[in-house]
Amino acid sequence: MPYSHDKAALAECEELLAIPANYLRRMRRRNGRICLDAGALGQQQLQALLFDCFFSRGSEHPFDLRGARTFPDLLAYVGWVAPQPDRLVLRVRAAARVCSYLLPYIRTFQDGSFEVSGIPGLRLERVTSKGLLLHHLPTHGRIELRERTGEPSHQHMRDALEGEAQGNTSLGVPDVNPMQAWTKASLTQGESVMAHHWAPTATTALRSALLVRANLLWSSPRHRAHLTPARRSNADRCLRWATGLTVTELGSLLTNSAVRIPEARFSAPTSVAGIGLIQLDGGILELQGQTVP
Q: What are the residues whose beta carbons fall under 8 Å from the beta carbon of 197, sequence distance 6 or more?
């Protein structure tokens, strides 16, 4: 029966992705099916950029310059990730702290080159007692950081953000005062030269889709999921992880479950310790993880 199938799919999504049922219901289409994927290209571009940041290793990502913590460290604050029609919602602890790490700061060198810490083009659109809404100028994508530790007041949230922002004064380099690019109404020159990081590629839709399904990997302790260069000539990069699902199990969930990526295709490893492939719209990523459960 359709109703029973829809109910079962909602329960499976809730279990696999840890997204509350009330958010999943907002993501239902008229036919009752849950849509996890952003339709707008700009939102996909922003989510693909976030995927690159969260699945970087250590502080290897070029925007990871703060010093005290890294993009992967922020996952300790994240409860769940839920796509909504006009934004991506991250349920987080210490929303102001996470926000301050994502907002961009720019260091300009004497030769006219730049370093950016945080996400270039990201701006604070709105502050409420429940969280912070961020807008990405070049892609028009949005991220909402929703606070999960109680219901702080609107003023408390603003004070917390201001306190975190004041601590971001040196990009980890003494005697350096970076510009707060996130306070500017338009894209700065230092941010514009980073446009290749969010420009559409063959894997933009795939990386965006994997971000909203990241709990499949993040739910496993010490998963150490990260991106590395690919071996196959037709693949963009390789997504690796250390614990949890096997490559075949992940590939099956991504193509044959309630959280599947529509139109995605999975090629299983040809050996026990081999590499699988996940493909969407011509974009390919390698998958390399556990070999046994």
A: 49, 52, 62, 63, 120
pLDDT at 1: 28
Please state, as a whole number, how many other Cβ atoms lie within 10 Å of the Cβ of residue 263. Answer: 11
State how far the Cα of 22 lies from the Cα of 217, in Å rounded to an integer: 23
Instruction: Flag residues of the chain having pLDDT under 70.
Output: 1-5, 149-154, 156-157, 160, 164-177, 272-273, 291-293
pTM of the model: 0.91
Crossing angle of the two packed helices 95-102 and 154-167, in degrees rounded to 10: 40
Residue in the block written with tokens 């703060």: 66
Contact 275, 231 (CB under 8 A): yes
270 contacts: CB under 8 Å, gap ≥ 6: none
Cα 111 to chain centroid, rounded: 33
Place of tokens 């370093």: 115
DSSP structure class, residue 283: E
Q: What are the structural domain ranges in the chain?
A: 36-197, 213-288
The 8-class DSSP code of residue 182 comes to G
Q: How many CA atoms lie within 13 A of 255 on its CB side?
A: 17
